[in-house]
Amino acid sequence: MTTFPAVQTLVISDVGGDLIVHGTERSDIEVQSDSDLAHLQPRGNEFPIRDIGGSLRLFVPHETRIVAKDIGGDAQIEDVLSVELKDVGGDLVIKNVTATAQFKSVGANMCIDACWRLSRVIW
User: Fold this and answer.
1) What is the pLDDT of residues 74-115, one digit of tens each?
2) What does DSSP say about strands 65-71 and 9-15: parallel, antiparallel, or unpaired?
3) Rounded to a whole number, what is the largest CA-CA distance in the chain?
4) Can you name the residues that pair with 103 across neighbouring β-strands?
5) 123: which DSSP letter?
6) What residues contact residue 85 under an 8 Å CB cut-off, 6+ apart?
7) What do you get for the CA distance between the two ends of the chain, in Å?
8) Are 29 and 58 in contact (CB under 8 A)?
9) Is 73:67 a contact under the CB 8 Å cutoff?
């Protein structure tokens, strides 16, 4: 487990396993993975996270925007501001996203739950 200062946008790519993102009341970002996290470093308002060999679990502030691509396993994103996903190999679950949700190329099942405040969904 490693923590970082909060940023506006997480830019995630090339995760070999599952991606799980939980929006919370916290004011920082907690990153959990079996992979080496030494190369991770926020840059301004963005935090690039890439080349994670296994699964990745994140605990982020509710106001965080998630942009992710090339997820090898399942993706579960909940309680964040917005989500933009491309190329998820497994299932996709989105819960309680408050602004926009965009997704392209989901390899298995998809579930959108409790997103009644969404202003826009793009498929």
Assistant:
1) 999 999 999 999 999 999 999 988 888 888 888 888 777 765
2) parallel
3) 38
4) 85
5) -
6) 66, 68, 69, 71, 75, 77, 92, 102, 103, 104, 106
7) 33
8) yes
9) no
